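[job 4417] fold queue: 2 targets
>>> target A
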Amino acid sequence: MGHKLKIVGLLSAGALAGALASISLQTAARGSLAPLPLEELQQLAAVFSMVKSNYVDPVDEKKLITDAIAGMVAGLDPHSVYMDAKTLKDFNEGTTGKFVGVGIEITQEDGYIKVVSPIEDSPAFKAGLKPNDLIVKIDDTLVKGLSLNEGVKRMRGEPDTKVLLSVFRKDENRTFQVTITRELIKTQSVKARIVEPGYGWVRLSQFQERTVADFARKVEDMYKQEPRLKGLVLDLRNDPGGYLDAAVAISAAFLPENVTVVSANGQLPESKFTYKASPQFYARHGNDPLAQLNPATRKALSTVPLVVLVNEGSASASEIVAGALQDHHRAKLLGSQTFGKGSVQTAVCLDGAFRMDNCPTAALKLTTSRYYTPSGKSIQAKGIVPDVMVDETEEGNLFAALRTREADLEKHLASGQGDEVKDAAREKVREEARKKLEEEMKKPAADRKLPEYGSDKDFQLQQAIKQLKGQPVLASKTQVERAEEKKEN
């Protein structure tokens, strides 16, 4: 996610015919035409022919080719993916913030679908699904063996239809079933309120198509309520990212005009770019969503004392914002070192359609660049280090070790900036955190140590307000900057 979708053409010719005795395919590579490897493609054709002829059951030729393409792309890195027509539809829906489904953010763990977070007020949220729940069965289909995209397909559907999920809750060591009615999910990516006189809180849960316009509207309302804000907290905790242009726009709301927000570097000329704090880099079809701000509000945003909250769940576009505001000394960053997703994905419609939302058949989402902060630091597999490390609770950073980071993902890209060191003690820390979480989840909800973000029990938010007031902040005594982790070969 994250890169403003650039549509490029793919050159392809030829077909699998016989054993591919004659192949003259060519493709664009490093800016010039290079022949594809004939011998390896002949092996591919031989395997295709053998499977089609000798497999125990008849196989669909189209599915064989599709699976081969999907496998080839999946072997690159965790964020490159081949999208068939249905997956492509889901991708386009997700970036607008509207889709029909149960309303959960998910990842994969041990072959199962893991709930990262239920979307607030969604059917899954109302049904009681929780972070770290494992979905083991969807209707009558076992999840183990399904790809994440296949799992998503089965949970999405038409409005008002039902899906039966079998869920394993690790901290309670039990499996249960829950029937959820699918709905049109309209995710609200921006929350804002005055937390105490003179101090505001704006939370971005994702960078979607509507995020910047919603941000402008809610900030305007906040300034109407409190015209002389003394300080503002921008909360990017557990924000997984989204549109790059939205991240650039949010950064531009706080930064001087035309300073660098983010740069990227890859193999091809079009994968090398620099985005600046100017409407030409984020306004879609000439429409600047920040233009709806009152000039006085826009000016106030450029000078209001600012603290940004981040944690291990802050990824991609949220890391771009945090890195830009930190490098330009516009904000103090508090919290924990971020996720480390510093790669750019370019979406390519394989039939050459100009717009991704008009792409009728299939597309490729391919990692093409690495992101860099304005000072030139790579975000990839390292993340952004806060100015002040602050734990989640007064008792400590109890459960952060359980969060997946970019460096935990199989086949993750290295940062590209020097050697990386493997943290041998991480699994021990994770096991200790698992035990603590199990004990915590046995307590009544009101007594648990991780309150809702933005509530009066939000410890990190309290420390952010203290930072804005110039009061002493209770910094972590245990958190240290993570070393980059070596990619396993």
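>>> target B
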Amino acid sequence: MTDHPSLQPYVDAWTQSMEAISELVTPLVEGEWNRRTECPGWSVRDVVSHIIGLECEVMGDPRPIHSLPRDILHVRDEKSRHMEVQVDVRRHHTGPEMTSEFEYVFIRRSRHLRNEKRGPEAEVTNVLPFGPRKLTLERQLMMRAFDVWVHEQDLRRALDAPGDLDSPGAYVARDVMLAALPKVVAKDVGAPPNSAIVFDVSGPVEFMRTVRVDKAGNGTVDGSVSLGPTATLAMDWETYSRLAAGRVRPEAVADRVKIDGDAELAAEILRHFSVTP
């Protein structure tokens, strides 16, 4: 346990997802490591490599010195090139090599977290090639719990092993995704002033939230009911999380999303729904 109880929920969520990933990948035969996931261009091996690489960087390990091939189609800018290095350097590792490294990194990082003495507001370096150069320790732990849960779900869908849609990481993911909604609706889509967009989500993680756009075009999100909203989007939690994580196009899950009210505005929101980099 960390010295600060407010950080523990994120550590617990991260730990549960990491344990789940370990259980998923340990029994895999070699061919299963190559299964395609919904993460563009990445296989099961690649997703696990990404997790290993980021946890190593968070602990301060140096990044690998590695030149990427020029024919990786999903690498289109410097951000994706940065993210791909930790993946490509492990692309020819065997299943046993992958599981051994994952378990070693998991043990190291767990010990690292148990010994954490800094408070939630302590400044840490952002190891990702986007966003602020510095962030709080609390934000870093939240985003690591979010990231590993999203990737756990990538692996589960690729391996046809559903589960953990209501795990602690799922609730961290919900909070991260909801926090991004006002920007999606008010700024990215430009919903009209004084509009209200309701998101009605059912399933293992159930919630209803309203994004309100004020007369100045600023968005806020709350849990109060809106009478006569501009648009309502209803869907199940797995569909919501896949859309918000950019794992599926809106047209591919159109039969799982119900829209009431301004259909054109709702469709535009769905087109901008992905909040992950």
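[job 4417] complete. Note on B: The mean pLDDT is 94.
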